[in-house]
Amino acid sequence: MELGGKVALVTGAAQGIGKVVTETLLANGAKVSLLDANIAGGEATKTAFEQVYGAENILFLPCDVTSESQLKDSFSKTLDKFKRLDIVCNNAGIFEEGNWEKCISVNLISVIKGTYLGLQHMSKENGGSGGVIVNVASMAGLLPFVAGPVYAASKHAVLGFTKSLAMSCLEKHGVRINAVCPTFVDTLLLENLQSDENLAQFAFLKEKVNSLIADFGVVKPSQVAAGFLQVVMDQTRNGAMLKILRDGKNEYEIPAEIQKSQ
Fold first, then answer.
1. Is 58 a domain residue?
2. 1 in a structural domain
3. Measured between alpha carbons, how far is 236 from 5 in angstroms, rounded to an integer?
4. Range of the domain at 153
5. Who's near 122: CB < 8 A, 6+ residues apart?
6. pLDDT of res. 258
7. Distance between CA atoms of 9 and 25, rounded to whole angstroms?
8. What is the pLDDT of residues 76-135, one digit of tens each?
9. DSSP state of 240
């Protein structure tokens, strides 16, 4: 998929992975709708990118992804401005073991809703042009994470949802669905992973978390954005999980069921 003239919607776009994904899309010729509950951060990001990529190519929409009405409204406003939608990046995520219902709501339920809204607007059955959805998961969706069982559950579920839905959506809707699974990333969430407040009842495992970070390493958001771009542009990839690993290594993990169907 060439990105010139394409339109993307990115959640959690004010900072971290979402911000770098947004800039990567803009730098490759796409127009981008930035969604984030952080209004000050979103406005600052929008202003900075406008100076480089042009105001006509950027839209910032304040959006709490746990609000179905706000999410639906953001998709509608994106279509109103840009007249099409080709790429959705469900990136917004949190780590809060002490508020596990919110963690599930942001990390999983909003991803499901964002994916279905993306399908609704991009589906060739509904007059769309097809496209690609990339859900930001985690290596914690592939492995146990002793200090974050709810976080790990949310990311395991994102991968199960992505792999399962991908098996029908390309043929029916013309939409590919993939996931990226980074190891620890140098973002605010990494700080939250080491916070007693966010670890809650698992704060006694903080040293275990630090040991895991040392073992798996920390990658920059730019490496995650490069992996995102890779799965967006490679039209042979559907139902794939791209592991973003230390030392610049990216590895695909594709379920056997999807390999058989390709």
1. yes
2. no
3. 21
4. 7-261
5. 85, 86, 88, 128, 129, 130, 131, 133, 173, 174, 175
6. 52
7. 10
8. 999 999 999 999 999 999 999 999 999 999 999 999 999 999 999 999 999 999 999 999
9. -
- Kindly list the distances between the CA atom of residue 200 and the CA atoms of 82, 195, 207, in Å, as whole numbers in the listed order: 43, 8, 14
Q: What are the DSSP calls for 61-126, one per residue?
A: EE--TT-HHHHHHHHHHHHHHHS---EEEE------GGGHHHHHIIIIIHHHHHHHHHHHHH-GGG
* CATH code at position 29: 3.40.50.720
Name the domain count of the chain: 1
16-67 pLDDT per residue, tens: 999 999 999 999 999 999 999 999 999 999 999 999 999 999 999 999 999 9
Q: Give the tens place of pLDDT for each residue, 221-243.
A: 999 999 999 999 999 999 999 99
CA-nearest of 151, 157, 156, 161 to 101 is 151
CA dihedral 80, 222, 153, 256 (to 10 degrees): 90
Give me the phi and psi of 90, to 5 degrees please.
-85, 95
SS3 of 221, please? Answer: helix
Contact call for residues 61 and 43 (beta carbons, < 8 A): no
Cβ atoms < 10 Å from Cβ of 169: 22
Q: Which residues are catalytic?
A: 151
Cα four-point dihedral sign 92, 96, 100, 101 = negative
The one-letter amino acid code at 210 reads N
Nearest to 122 by CA among 175, 197, 166: 175
Instruction: Report pTM.
Output: 0.95
Rg (CA), the chain: 17
Distant-in-sequence, close-in-space partners of 40: CB < 8 Å, separation ≥ 6: none
For 12: left if phi > 0, alpha if psi spans -120 to 50, otherwise beta; the answer is left
Q: Would 87 be classed as within a structural domain?
A: yes
